[in-house]
Design brief:
With 1143 residues, the protein is an alpha/beta fold. It is built from 40 helices and 16 strands. It has a ten-stranded mixed sheet with strand order 9-10-11-7-6-12-15-14-16-13, sandwiched between helices. The chain is globular.
Length: 1143
């Protein structure tokens, strides 16, 4: 490799090379025109610090003794001049709720913006005291297997198709079921319900009843009693009010009141007095007001085409006929005036409820449009604050309207309605009265059937709504949302016609699994003869096809979804939940007309539109992913695995970029990335004042396997150009340009100049990428905030294997919710040997159960550093990044800060109010410890740090609950119980073994206690008096002994289960525990094989839950990393030593 050839003016005070050759300080001095190296360095160091100069220093172009950074050796007290000193209490993380999410950006913008256009001399004066990239602070507060085969891809496609079909059929079925239940309820509120009953032997009783057409001659005639009818009325009220109960805790009073009045008129006046077929077709009139607003929607600034305007006008006219056709017909014939005004008024008021979705910035309604836009904006701001009040008000209003409509303001009818009547009220127009030979029937299932039906209706609506959301979120809106909702009414119309004809042919016998007395209304105002012919001739049934088409046109936007994956429900629907009376209509009208789609804006252009031939696709909202990995003593296969993942990411990004630049493809998932590897201890040992030294064998190995990894991805022999080499204050930097034109920087850290270990590497790249490359730039504060929200750091280990799709899933989590500060994926341990088998089951169970539970009921407490995505703006917030750069000053700091740095970073994010999420589909593979000693050392580091961070979080629970909306008091209780259980686990396992010895070998409990106490005390003493090497050897021996004891325990439990039977407590408990694992594995079919390793996990319980805890507690003073410590860089000096000879 070529040597560095640099002018002395830009050469730092030390020098290094890759191939063992270097220029000495004397040679540098001879080539200098300005004197000795010392003189040149002194001149450089005497210059003031400026942003431009800082950039040159980071780029390795200006010599200095090092940039002041928390990762550097200089004192931490001199770094943040304005910040307060770090407090040992977690309550320092509370920030003012009114402050910005990343107050760092706005705090320092005045310092930079005021001097953005000034000269270099002015900026020198301004930034001499305060460095613009070091503005992060701690604020005080009040104490309040990644690579899958083709068969997996095929299986994924099959699952997606099956899921799509299932969602389509399920939504269609639940929609039909809910609407059928509603129509069944209103059909039994009908005053012409007529029953044919068989009398029983007991006087005054009947054996059975069946519903018959009201025009069928019967003597005597039976009707449901008023006590039965009123139950159907209450069932209808439950249908109306149930969505209000669901949204109560999540709307403007007048609009919502009008909507509620319209629903009550429709349910209590219109539907009970007409057949289900007409009631079903009338629901297409719910889009009347939206159709009017749609006519004034220009859709874009340039207006819209004439044929679209004509279609809008036509749709509005058809919607108007829904409100006027049948009322005018009734008025002209002089019949059913109540039905006439009820149809018009109810649907006019109902359609008002969905006006908000059809008002946007392109609406051209003059002053009215401006007023509606302002009202919409105010509603959006106040919606979550007044739902409780509006929900209660709508329930009270519905109760009042039901009472007034059904009682006709008659006291006797009110008594009947509230179960105080005696079936004799005759002045109630909406209840049947006994006349002539008519008999009232009640009792049996008639008392409870209304509420069973309403229960079916409510749950059908809930399930339909839930699965509709799911279909939209997983990008199946067209097939599994729009299609079934569009087809629901036509399918139900066909089913209703067929069922009514079958019912009449069977003489009132229900063909369905329902009581014979219970059925839909299959007559028109008491006349069942020629039911269908009457509807076609007198009610112009074919015209309803135009109603359906007009409704489809008004809701045509549901066929063109424009949202990203896993979007929040608030961005899918304008109003929360649904309308129980008009389920499918509410879902279609409530689906946002123009959802805010950040993903398309990310693609480029000011409005998110890709312009052909653009040279740059990056905008402020384009996701910028900094891939940051840490390396130390990785072996060749680990480096190849990691570099392979990088080259895959490079290929994916390049393909997306070229598709947009050359084929005008709009890619909502487009991103840009830059890779950084921070190499600890990258140089051979040398003295502090030594100017000539070389990189170690691990760095040379990384350079050597670069071509191998590239060839593996591109499947041809690849030759990556050699890197550009830069000397830097912390050591050196190598820069590659990958085949996709993305950058890979390898930062070589010299232990003599900069702090080593993983946390300080993370601090180094956080301050460099976020502080120096983002905050220190002279940009507008709003633009910086936008860039910070869309900048992510992907933290990786040097041996991880992942696919670009896994990274995209993590980015989707970030896009879904701006309060998500970190997201982690599913980690799969790889390697060989029994310890890997154990970890496969352990990792699987912890992800299946613990991480998934934390994600659903609160927040994930630890986002592992081997594969996690962090949002830049959350890291840059107060009390996060600056506090993460704190020096360890006492014993607890070494345990919490340095032994589990990823968990501590997540704790800081949670305490600052950010959410940490888990994506089970984002798979990543990493090499796990294969030896017993290495595994124990790793867990010796993990266990105490986990407990320390949980203690920190629990100790600050009041502030955490106050700041973090995703963490509740119940979640804190849940974590407290887990924490207490982990403390008592060693004692529990100890007593379990005592009981096992007692039951297996028939030894009394006291003797069993002493037998088990001996090895535990022996190991405890050994941990205090022997070295770690002997402690691990003894732990291995005891683990084998305890594994054999566990085998005896398992056999003993099997015999006990056989002896006591399946109903014994032992059997039930074991079946329950095993069943949890089996069910979890069924939901993760690709990882089902992990259950096979459960046997080894069971045998290892005493070792991992008891001996490991003792080892961890007795070695708290050991702060070494625990893994990869046996690997040592080759020492060239030793190779040159002459071999000794004998004799």
């Amino acid at each position: 490799m070529p040597l560095f050839v640099c002018d002395i003016n830009i050469v730092p005070y030390t020098y290094w090379s890759l191939n063992g050759l270097s220029l000495t300080s004397k040679e540098l001095a001879r080539n200098s025109e300005g004197g000795s190296v010392y003189t040149r360095i002194k001149k450089i160091m005497d210059k003031p610090w400026t942003p431009a100069r800082l950039r040159k220093i980071y780029d390795g172009l200006v010599g200095s003794e090092g940039v002041v950074n928390p990762a550097f050796v200089t004192s931490m007290d001199s770094i943040n001049i304005e910040g307060n000193t770090w407090s040992d209490t977690s309550s320092d993380n509370v920030k003012d709720p009114l402050s910005s999410r990343a107050s760092t950006l706005t705090r320092e913008v005045q310092e930079i913006q005021d001097g953005a256009n000034s000269s270099t001399q002015e900026m020198d004066k301004k930034f001499t005291g305060v460095k613009p990239w070091d503005v992060f602070r701690i604020t005080p507060r009040d104490r309040y297997k990644a690579a899958s085969g083709s068969y997996v891809n095929l299986l994924t496609k099959i699952v997606k198709v099956v899921t799509s079909i299932f969602l389509t059929l399920f939504i269609l079925t639940t929609t039909i079921l809910s609407k059928s239940a509603l129509l069944l309820i209103t059909s039994n509120m009908y005053t012409n319900v007529t029953l044919d009953c068989k009398k029983a032997d007991v006087l005054g009783h009947v054996q059975s009843c069946r519903r018959v057409p009201p025009d069928e001659p019967l003597k005597p005639t039976f009707i449901p009693s008023q006590n039965v009818e009123v139950r159907w009325v209450w069932a209808a009220l439950i249908v109306v009010c149930m969505p209000y109960l669901f949204t109560m805790f999540k709307c403007v009073l007048v609009v919502e009141s009008l909507h509620t009045i319209g629903l009550c008129i429709f349910v209590f006046y219109v539907l009970p007095n007409m057949d289900p077929l007409r009631g079903l077709l009338l629901t297409f009139g719910a889009a009347f007001v939206p159709s009017i607003l749609k006519m004034f929607d220009n859709q874009r600034e340039s207006g819209r085409k004439l044929y679209i305007l004509l279609a809008d006008v036509t749709a509005m006219l058809f919607q108007l006929t829904v409100l006027l056709l049948w009322p005018i017909r009734n008025i002209l014939k002089g019949e059913n005036y109540e039905e006439a005004w009820g149809i018009f008024v109810s649907f006019l008021l109902i359609s008002i409820g969905w006006w908000e979705n059809y008002i946007n910035r392109f609406t051209n309604l003059g002053r009215i449009g401006v007023t509606l836009k302002d009202l919409k904006r105010n509603i959006r701001r106040m919606r979550t604050k007044i739902y409780a009040v509006v929900g209660v008000w709508k329930i009270i209003l519905s109760f009042s309207l039901m009472t007034a409509m059904m009682s006709n303001f008659q006291l006797s009818c009110v008594k009947v309605l509230y179960f105080l009547g005696d079936n004799t009220a005759s002045e109630c127009p909406h209840f049947s009265s006994i006349q002539g030979d008519t008999r009232a029937v009640e009792g049996g299932s008639m008392w409870y059937d209304p509420f069973w039906i309403v229960l079916i209706q409510v749950f059908s609506c809930l399930l339909c709504y839930t699965f509709s959301k799911t279909a939209c979120k997983i990008m199946l809106q067209v097939v599994s949302f729009a299609l079934p909702l569009m087809m629901a009414v036509p399918v139900l119309v066909g089913l209703t016609i067929g069922e009514c004809e079958t019912w009449k042919q069977n003489n009132g016998t229900s063909p369905l699994l329902m009581p014979d007395y219970l059925y839909w209304t299959c007559d028109v105002h008491g006349i069942s003869h020629n039911f269908l012919e009457t509807l076609v001739s007198e009610y112009y049934l074919p015209l309803t096809i135009g109603w359906w088409l007009s409704f489809m046109w008004v809701t045509f936007h549901i066929w063109m979804p424009r949202v990203e994956r896993l979007v929040q429900t608030e961005r899918l629907f304008v109003q929360p939940l649904y309308c129980g009376v008009m389920l499918e209509q509410s879902l279609m009208l409530n689906r946002r007309h123009r959802a805010k789609f950040n993903a398309y804006a990310n693609a480029g252009g000011q409005n998110g539109i890709i312009m052909p031939g653009r040279s740059s696709l990056k905008t402020d909202t384009t996701p910028m992913i900094y891939v940051c990995a840490t390396m130390w003593h990785e072996v060749e296969k680990e480096m190849v695995q990691f570099l392979t993942s990088l080259f895959r990411l490079d290929t994916d990004q390049c393909a997306r970029k070229n598709a947009q630049k050359f084929f005008d493809v709009v890619d909502p998932d487009y991103y840009e990335f830059e890779a950084h590897i921070f190499f600890d201890n990258a140089f051979e040992k040398h003295e502090d004042d030594q100017y000539e030294y070389h990189v170690n064998s691990f760095v040379k190995q990384l350079i050597r396997v670069m071509d191998k990894a590239a060839s593996k991805v591109h499947r041809i022999t690849m030759k990556i150009p050699p890197p550009t080499k830069y000397p830097t204050p912390y050591g050196g930097r190598l820069e590659w340009t990958l085949p996709g034109n993305n950058k890979l920087n390898v930062h070589l850290k010299d232990n003599m100049k900069i702090r080593h270990k993983k946390r300080w590497s993370q601090v180094m790249y956080m301050y460099y990428l976020l502080g120096y490359k983002l905050v220190a730039q002279p940009l507008d504060a709003r633009r910086k905030q936008t860039m910070a929200d869309n900048t992510y750091i992907l933290t990786l280990d040097g041996d991880v294997d992942f696919k670009p799709s896994a990274v995209q899933l993590l980015v989707d989590r970030m896009r879904k919710n701006e309060k998500v500060g970190a997201a982690c994926g599913r980690i799969h341990p790889i390697g060989t040997g029994p310890m890997i088998w154990y970890q496969k089951f352990e990792y699987a169970v912890s992800h299946w159960l613990q991480k998934a539970t934390e994600h659903m009921i609160g927040c994930v407490l630890c986002s592992p550093g081997c594969f996690s995505l962090f949002r830049a703006s959350s890291l840059m917030d107060d009390n996060v990044m600056r506090k993460y750069a704190t020096m360890s000053s006492n014993a607890r700091h070494y345990v919490q800060f340095d032994q589990g740095e990823d968990r501590w970073l997540c704790t800081l994010l949670l305490q600052q109010g950010y959410r940490v999420e888990y994506s089970a589909a984002a798979d990543a593979l990493t090499y796990a410890p294969e030896g017993f000693d290495e595994f124990y050392n790793q867990r010796r580091r993990w266990s105490p740090s986990t407990m320390a961070n949980i203690m920190d979080l629990l100790g600050d629970w009041k502030n955490v609950i106050r700041l973090n909306e995703n963490i509740s008091f119940l979640y804190i209780i849940y974590q407290l119980l887990l924490f207490l259980s982990s403390i008592i686990t060693p004692g529990t396992i100890f007593l379990l073994i005592v009981g096992a010895l007692n039951s297996a070998f028939k030894i009394d409990l006291l003797t069993s206690l002493f037998i088990n106490l001996v090895p535990v005390l022996l190991y405890l003493i050994a941990c205090f008096v022997t070295t770690s090497k002997w402690q691990l050897r003894l732990a291995g021996i005891l683990s084998l002994v305890y594994a054999m004891i566990m085998m005896v325990v398992v056999v003993g439990l099997g015999l006990e289960m056989k002896r006591e039977g399946t109903c014994s407590p032992t059997t039930i408990f074991l079946i329950f525990v095993i069943g949890i694992f089996v069910v979890a594995a069924i939901f993760h079919p690709r990882e089902f094989y992990c259950l096979l390793h459960g046997a080894l996990y069971l045998l290892s319980i005493p070792s991992m839950s008891m001996l490991l805890m003792i080892y961890s507690m007795c070695n708290l003073h050991v702060v070494s990393w625990g893994t990869r410590e046996n690997a040592v860089a080759a020492n060239p000096a030793e190779k040159l030593k002459p071999k000794s000879t004998k004799g």
